[in-house]
Design goal:
Blueprint: H1 3-21, H2 37-47, H3 51-61, H4 65-74
């Protein structure tokens, strides 16, 4: 095998190892990811509350979507 072929083979092996070690993002249906602006915006609009109201509700109830929905209905 030529040197060039060995380098290509080793580079391909390295790329496959990097992609295997990369951590996949996990999604949870019942928990709100506060770093995801789209999730926050969609839930806030669905509940029809302002930014300040939504922030207050999340501070009280935490990231659980069920708890946020329940708290929004109370207030």
């Amino acid at each position: 095998m030529s040197t060039q072929c060995r380098n290509i083979a080793s580079n391909m092996s390295f790329v496959s190892q990097v992609s295997m070690n990369k951590r996949r993002q996990t999604y949870s249906r019942n928990s709100l990811d506060l770093r995801d602006k789209v999730q926050v915006k969609v839930l806030r609009k669905r509940l029809k509350v302002s930014d300040q109201q939504f922030a207050s509700i999340v501070r009280k109830s935490g990231p659980s979507i069920a708890a946020i929905t329940k708290e929004a209905k109370v207030t």
